[in-house]
Structure formats: C-alpha cells, structure tokens
Amino acid sequence: MPATLRDVLLRPVVTEKSTDQMGKNNKYTFYVAPDANRTEVKQAVEKLFKVTVLKVNVIRGEGKRKRLGRYEGKRPDWKKAVVTLKPGDRIGIFEGV
User: Fold this and answer.
1) pLDDT tens across 40-57, in order?
2) How far, in Å, CA of 76 to CA of 16, rounded?
C-alpha cells in the first residue's frame, strides 16, 4: 500500500490516444503504483486535483524481456489507470498538451 497520495500517481500518460480521450470523453490516464487499487487511485485524483471521479479503469502490464548480447534482463511491470471525470471538470496539468 502506498504511503501517501502522491505515491499512488506516478506520472501522467501523454500519448495521442490519451490526449484524444481527454478532449472527447473527459478521461485522463496515469501510471500508478503497482500495488494501488481503484479506490486509492480515485481518492488520490479527487484530493490532489479537486475534481469528481466517476469511474476508474485499471490496466496491468508485464515488462518486456530484453537482451543485449548474452545478457538478459526484464523491464519493470507497470500499472496504468484511466480516470473518467464528471462533465465540466478538468485537470490543469494536462492543459496545453
């Protein structure tokens, strides 16, 4: 379990698809802590950005295996959350992206 609200949200995801969803569907995407659950993500977004969250969808991804010559490694596993906000609510850090 993450220690604080800022430990839950790691960074925003800024891609063409996520930017398109911001404008059309009022959905914002974040990389979140691997042990965070939907309730923690919802509370973190609502308290940090002062918005109302309607829905949280969570995606878990497994890190890819990589090789460099005879050395083999693995990228870290990740977790992503797509947060749907109430119509009219906006998150300021995404404005102008």
Assistant:
1) 999 999 999 999 999 999
2) 23
